[in-house]
Amino acid sequence: MSASDQEPSVAEVAGGLAAAGLALPDAEVGALTQFLALLARWNRVYNLTGIHDSSELVARHLVESLALKPYLRGQRIADVGSGAGLPGLPLAIVEPGREFTLIESRAKRVRFLRHVIGELELTNTVVAHTRAEHLRPDRPFDTVLARAVAPPAELLAICRSLTAPGSRLLLLTAMHLQEAFRGLASDWELQSDEAPAVGSGEPALRSSIVLLERTHG
Question: N or C: which end of the chain has fewer CB atoms below 10 A?
Fold first, then answer.
């Protein structure tokens, strides 16, 4: 693995967030900085992300994750195929009143997630060490997050057992895939009137936000 992984400073994280229009309390900026520092350290051994530059860690991992915050619905949030904790961990840091479940099947990544949760003392976050399609929650999640997890049709199938009518599926995906979800399944409706259009709004993202709502069981 690369030994050049850079650990961003608090000033760099605060500056990157501010440049994207994200003004956060000092405590949250500090926790987000600590998360990226842990990610950079573990990445030298476990290859958790292909991004090694500190400014890119802020732009791609923090800014894009936090861009989902306005679209969260409800109390119970799941992050499918959480990997390095994205987008779930940054959102859990800035949304302490919500409950986050990070779903991840790979043992090394599960160890990282649990280490971060312990180090940051995130009492609102747990890890489910399983594949998302095998998880049967006691209650459906209000919002399910995903980032580059599976092709559109497969992703919708995976998320059915995690959701109920009224649940949201909130995705960060390649921009050319935004319309691939429209009309793909009768029980999922693309909410194009609520999700930001490509190239509009702040912060500017390299990914596209896709918002779907479960319409029926």
Answer: C
The predicted model scores a pTM of 0.92
> In the chain, what is the greatest distance between 2 CA atoms, to the nearest angstrom?
49
Spatial CB neighbours of 199, under 8 Å, sequence gap ≥ 6: none
Q: What pLDDT, on a 0 to 100 scale, did the predictor assign at position 194?
A: 63
> What are the tens digits of pLDDT across the range 15-27?
999 999 899 999 9
The stretches of 47-151 forming alpha helices (DSSP H) are 54-56, 64-66, 88-94, 107-120
Pull the structure tokens for residue 64. 């894009």
Closest to 190 measured CA to CA, from 202, 199, 178: 178
Which strands sit side by side in the sheet containing 168-173, from one edge to the other? 125-129, 99-104, 76-80, 143-147, 168-173, 208-214, 188-190
Count Cβ atoms below 10 Å from residue 89 Cβ, excluding itself. Answer: 28
Rounded CA gap, 166 and 143, in Å?
9
At 209, phi and psi to the nearest 5? -90, 125
72: left (phi over 0), alpha (psi -120 to 50) or beta: beta
Cβ-based neighbour number of residue 14 at 10 Å: 20
